[in-house]
Amino acid sequence: MATGRTHRPATRSRGIPEATVARLPLYLRALTALSERSVPTVSSEELAAAAGVNSAKLRKDFSYLGSYGTRGVGYDVEYLVYQISRELGLTQDWPVVIVGIGNLGAALANYGGFASRGFRVAALIDADPGMAGKPVAGIPVQHTDELEKIIQDDGVSIGVIATPAGAAQQVCDRLVAAGVTSILNFAPTVLNVPEGVDVRKVDLSIELQILAFHEQRKAGEEAAGDAGAVPPVAARKQQPATDQGPDGDVPAVMPA
Amino acid sequence: MATGRTHRPATRSRGIPEATVARLPLYLRALTALSERSVPTVSSEELAAAAGVNSAKLRKDFSYLGSYGTRGVGYDVEYLVYQISRELGLTQDWPVVIVGIGNLGAALANYGGFASRGFRVAALIDADPGMAGKPVAGIPVQHTDELEKIIQDDGVSIGVIATPAGAAQQVCDRLVAAGVTSILNFAPTVLNVPEGVDVRKVDLSIELQILAFHEQRKAGEEAAGDAGAVPPVAARKQQPATDQGPDGDVPAVMPA
DNA sequence: ATGTCTTTGTGAACGCGTGCACAAAGATGG
DNA sequence: CCATCTTTGTGCACGCGTTCACAAAGACAT
């Protein structure tokens, strides 16, 4: 019960695959750097290297946007910057509210990467009345009571949640009710949102845990005496049966 | 040239798919919450709802770890918490260094989600000599000069980069040279690392740009009067020739 | 012991994303 | 105008991840 939409059903936005959309900002960044160095054109090979991807993938990605390259030459940097910006919707202004001005919220408010793209911090919001009026990154913090008013007055459609986990769902509900349809969630919780609302989450703890997994694996393999780079990758199905008892058996540390 | 490893070649760690590994922390969090409420067992359906995923996917994920459930009953919460923790390598202590103690670095240092898992902040490092000795989150900041010594003394294998983009690669190189083999990168740059080093990146700006794309799409579809879900998706190859000049021409909005 | 009922574990089908490899397009030089 | 050379755009095949749907496994009641 209560299986509210949580994952975007991958509606396959236009023709553009989600994986490609996720890479466009990467290309844009590399292109912007080239633009600042006044480089007129760039080949798929060069740009791919700068963005850290495969050149074939890059060309396929661009092919979804249209035929913007010139065979034998490459891509016009300025033109491509514009096309990608337009595709991502960065040619317009996106007012954003940040809710929860703790350490992380303040860091976000100060982050320069927002303004340089089309993003503008419309308001900083915190539940602590003591914070009200205190300027962070040159913007006075406002109390949660003002949330609905701000969103409606400024036509905010993107909200950033940087509150503790306990408050996140409640904040999310209020944001959505007030008209926000895209949410960037930094709180370590699964947010429940109605259909049509996009949620992306950034979870520091999860990223570290994934790294720990790989780290452990490296250590384990090393201990196994396998010094070479690429170990017998495929077909390793056996369980670490040497570890503890057989399947059903419970290792030392156990439930009460 | 210099196409150093940047993406993990999906070495397919053990039998466990990368996608599954990425979800394990999610399950772990949901299970921990249940554990705190002293819930003894949980069905795949319930747990899947709590973690915001499909129940079939969850069962398949768990099947990679082994047969830890009981048919007709579900999964033993405590047991599963242990198994996942062990699989992720959280039963051991992971010392972590955070480099770049600006707003974001400070936020990370204060983030509680680390300690609760097996992660311990071994050191905070900043290039600014004025920061040296100043305590952040109860830990005195140390100067970059100490970096190598700290890593070797504490056996640090995970590093977090929260520096400006310009310094990231240099910091990365030093971390790797000193023995770090997993890096969590918050700087908006593509990091170049040798084989065997894992990099995960968290990019605030990119996440917002992806949201903007979907937001623009929603707005566009609404304006097109297309209330239905799936618009004529495929086969849109024509350029927006009505927009501006031909290929080489640069539209109005442009960088300096 | 036997039957019923719940829930897991997984075989199989499908769709998306990736990468190879090459034909077509255009630039450039003679 | 033709030949050559570079680089794009993409058809195709492959592998990973997701989902469905169901048989097998066990709990529980009688």
UniProtKB/TrEMBL annotation, chains A, B:
UniProt region (Disordered), positions on chain: 221-256
Main location group: cytoplasm
Annotated localization: Cytoplasm
Feature: DNA-binding region: 26-65
Chain sites annotated for binding NAD(+): 100-105
A Pfam family hit: CoA_binding
Domain of life: Bacteria
Subunit structure: Homodimer.
Full protein name: Redox-sensing transcriptional repressor Rex
Organism: Streptomyces hyderabadensis
Taxonomic lineage from the root: Bacteria, Bacillati, Actinomycetota, Actinomycetes, Kitasatosporales
Chain's gene name: rex
